[in-house]
Each structure stands twice: as C-alpha cells, then as structure tokens.
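Example for tutorial group B:
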C-alpha cells in the first residue's frame, strides 16, 4: 500500500484520493465511520494490516466555532490522536504527513508567517492543531504541512457564497478585516504528494499564491460567476462569530518554492479552475 488517507471524506481527503488515483498510487481512505483515530488500538491494527508507506492525516474537527464549545473533543481528535498515528507509523517505518493550519499563529503579524516563527494560537481550534503538530513530531519520519482558507470538494466558503447567490440575496455581507491565502484543495493535494516524492520532512507552508480578505475573495467569486451582486464589507466584530479568528493568516511559502522549484498557482487561477468544475472528484 502506498498511501493511507485519514479524514478521506473531507475536502482535502477527497482531493488526495483523486490525485493519488491519477498517479496510479495504491491508496486507502478511512473516515470517522471506519476509523476512530482517537482509538490507539484501532489505528495500530489498521496500519499494521495495510502497511502503507505514507499516512496522510486529514482527520480533524475543523468547525472553528464548534471547537470552542467542544474543547475536549477537539484536543483529543486534532491533538492527542495524532500521537497514535505517529506511534503506528513508527511501528512499520511509515512517513506521517500531518495537515495543519494557519490558526497555530496568533494572527497579529505584519509579514507572511515563516515556518520557524513563534506560534501562539488564539482559540481552541488553533491550540488543538498545534498539539497535533507536536504529536506528529513524535514520529521518526514526519512532514507537517500548514495550509489556510481551503476550498475543495464539499462544503466551503465558495459554496456558501454560491448558495446565497443562487438564493438571489440582494447583497452579501462579508468580513473585510481578515487577510489570508485562499487555497484550492486539489492544488494542495498535488503539492502534498510532490513533497512526499521529494522526501520533504519537517514543517512546510503550502498555500496558493497571493493574498486577499474574505471580502475580496467573495468579490472575485461573484465576478467569476458573471454576476453583479453587491458585496458589503463588514468587520469581524459585526460578523459576531463565537471563536476568535486571526486577522492576519498569510503564510510564507519560500521553503515550499525552493523544494518544488515553483510556487503554487495564484489563488485567482485556482478559484477559476474550481468554479469550472476541475476539482470535483
């Protein structure tokens, strides 16, 4: 077995299964109904049975507001469970690839965050994912890929905007004081597989090129769909979400570009391909 993908029904999990299939890799996918990664025995038994060369962990509680309400669950699933995967990988010599997030940073920066910048998550989701990173480093062979603002097969920001547009809302109200890097899950999936092939280890930031606000992202979605719906900028405070969101989520990808010899495509191009149905496994 080449790859085991956990969280295989999520955005990135689905994109990874598709990308692996296109590359003729032998891949198995598991989601919560077939593998509880908080169960160390179940994790060890599956890895011992399949003996994958690489385990890519996409399993996580990613609903940021839900993490605030379900802290123990978030810390167990996003954090401690990664240690079970690390131990299982060590038992067979597999590489553990842990997918992480911009939320491990405080979100108060003025330049793109580098891999070695101090972390300091503001909320439960970020703290749980940072714990997951630490548990991933317990594996002798590990790669931690931090990404941000993911959109791919399934529910995501693009689809939330599209649903409102399909409902013919008179206007959209979208946060304009958070800045980050929209990232196509299919681009990220290919990048993760490329990094594995290159033998990359440690922590690497991987996002599509460029930055914008959620408001700017929404404006581009509306434009690409050929509509003229007004997009009204609002503040994070006006949005009234319970979990803290980083105001600055821009990740520096210099290390990624040095390894691959190229950057990931611009986010506008990545969005255009997504809207054209080029990322729909």
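The residue assignment follows.
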């Amino acid at each position: 077995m080449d790859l085991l993908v956990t969280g295989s029904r999520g955005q990135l999990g689905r994109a990874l299964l598709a990308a692996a299939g296109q590359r003729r890799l032998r891949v198995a996918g598991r989601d919560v109904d077939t593998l509880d990664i908080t169960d160390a025995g179940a994790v060890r038994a599956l890895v011992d049975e399949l003996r994958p060369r690489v385990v890519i962990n996409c399993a996580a509680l990613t609903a940021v507001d839900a993490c605030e309400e379900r802290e123990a669950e978030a810390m167990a699933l996003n954090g401690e469970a990664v240690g079970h995967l690390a131990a299982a990988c060590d038992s067979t010599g597999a590489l553990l690839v842990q997918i992480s997030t911009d939320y491990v940073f405080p979100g108060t920066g003025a330049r793109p965050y580098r891999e070695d910048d101090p972390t300091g998550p503001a909320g439960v989701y970020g703290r749980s994912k940072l714990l997951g990173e630490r548990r991933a480093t317990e594996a002798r062979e590990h790669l931690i890929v931090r990404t941000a603002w993911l959109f791919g097969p399934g529910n995501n920001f693009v689809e939330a905007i599209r649903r409102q547009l399909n409902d013919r809302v008179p206007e959209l109200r979208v946060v304009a004081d958070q800045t980050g890097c929209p990232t196509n899950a299919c681009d990220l999936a290919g990048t993760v597989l490329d990094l594995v092939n290159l033998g990359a280890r440690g922590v690497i930031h991987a996002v599509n090129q460029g930055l914008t606000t959620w408001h700017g992202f929404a404006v581009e979605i509306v434009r690409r769909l050929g509509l003229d719906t007004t997009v009204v900028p609002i503040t994070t405070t006006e949005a009234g979400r319970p979990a803290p969101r980083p105001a600055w989520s821009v990740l520096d990808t210099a290390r990624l570009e040095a390894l691959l010899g190229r950057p990931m495509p611009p986010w506008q191009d990545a969005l255009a391909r997504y809207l054209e149905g080029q990322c729909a496994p």
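The chain has a mean pLDDT of 96. Compare this with the pattern of hydrophobic and polar residues in the output above.
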